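Homework help board

Subject: predicted structure for assignment chain

Our instructor gave us this sequence and asked us to write out the predicted structure in token form, then describe one feature. I got the tokens but I'm not sure how to describe them. Can anyone check?
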Amino acid sequence: MMRGMVTLRVLGSGGAFGYGGRLQACALLEHGTERTLIDCGTTSLLALRRFAIDPQSIDAVLLTHFHGDHVGGIPWLVLDAQFAHRERPLVVAGPRGVAERITATMEDVVRGLSRTKQRFELRFVEYAERAPVAVGSLAVTAYPVDHTPGSEPVALRVAVGEKVLAVSGDTSWTDTLLEVARGADLFLAEGYSYEKRIPYHLSVRALVDHRAVLGARRIVVTHVGEETLARLADVPFEAAVDGSSYEI
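My token output:
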């Protein structure tokens, strides 16, 4: 990757249920010499290997909420790092309670994993609401959104130097997304359904209806479900597939 370039690669563009054979939520943000995952669903280690990305090259993971199709890959990422004798830190940043929630997830998947002495440090960073937090060279700002209670859902605004990536995470429409997307170079937005209103999820129709006020220079739809897959030709935005790459 050329120095100064910022690239987003959507490694998993599907929802929880694998419609269309798509992998679960995972995107790779490459910036300078740093590599950051945005969400890490259960299939993320598979996605990294499918697209020839060394899991040990990942510096950090940014989480949008605590559902398995967004965090379930972290235990396997950590276990893989253990077997690969990784020595440099791995940072996991997330909403309130990230250390406790991810530790519990690790224990649920591989008993004793969170208590195993690693060669590397697993560092946790908790977001501050509407205030930037440093994760490597990134400035990450989290905004509460409307998803399943208890999942601690946030949308993210990620500043990479002068570039801004906005990420909706999973959410029904909320005007908070206007804050998140305003002036962003790219808005990675959930498009789970096309027309149908599904509780706690964002439709393509909602994005279309608010397009004029979102203020993002570019909108890319991901986390697509069955209805959207059936109408991909009608989506008036760029629609990610597994492996899609975008220069920001």
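Reply (TA_rk): Your tokens look well-formed. For the description, you could write something like this. Helices lie at 44-50, 68-71, 74-83, 98-109, 176-181, 204-209, 211-214, 226-230. That's the kind of observation they're looking for.
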